Amino acid sequence: MTTVGDGVLVQANGLVKRFGEFTAVGGIDVAVRKGEAFGFLGPNGAGKSSTMRMVACVSPRTEGELSVLGMDPDRDGPRIRARLGVVPQLDNLDTELTVRQNLQVYGRYFGLSRATVRAKATELMEFAQLSERADDEVEPLSGGMKRRLTIARSLVNDPELLLLDEPTTGLDPQARHLLWDKLYRLKQQGVTLIITTHFMDEAEQLCDRLVVMDHSRIVAEGAPSALIKQYSTREVLELRFNPGEQQDALDNGVADLVERIEVLPDRLLLYTENGESTLETAHAKGIRPLSSLVRRSTLEDVFLRLTGRSLVD
Fold it and tell me: 44-81 burial string, b = 16+ CB within 10 Å, else e?
């Protein structure tokens, strides 16, 4: 099996997780290299979080091989967890303690001295832009502040590997971008990140490589740009119609304009190398949508190509 010495921090081969008759993870192969940001992209229920829990050594695998930091989670769970940082889907902060106390108490779980955790708490509050709220209780903080505190807390033990499960779910766009900046800074500092998300823009922004999961299995793997190039076109023309009018456009020849079309409830997606040219041709055929948009292809388009449905279904 590949080990940390080979530059791989997490190696899974044929990894399976079952809950009774239900298969949450159906035999996946994954390798996460030191210093990269690696993503699991897919809809809710695809198996992302179950995979993360096995890597975090809090849920035993059913079958297959798994190595984390060169160790076997079944035998070395405590040693692995001491070198991990974990950001769960839902914040599990102690809301009755202050920001500073949440960091200091958590640091003591790792056996750090009081002087060390005091210094570490100060450093991490600055990193998370929470210094001015150091002595405020957690409960009244905004969602974005709580998320930044949860990430700061996960860094108390200077982890080699940081696991982030849906890190920006429920945050507004401004808070999401601020969090992305913090994660980018961590990666620059050499922290290896594993991120699960169902936001394609987040995966494109943060991940060097990713796997696309659907129904417990990996359906594609690669760098975001490489996946888009492989499974989509350079541009997408979106034509929006009143409900039910998409079929009229298809009957009037829009299907002849490109090799691939996705039909969504309120619009048609035409996959093309030149969106403006395709739009001009559509207008020449007498096709008059309510609105049109030319955009670049995204991972959402990749997922539609691979599964026939959107990431948020």
Answer: eebbbbbbbbbbbbebebeebebbbbbbebeebbeebb
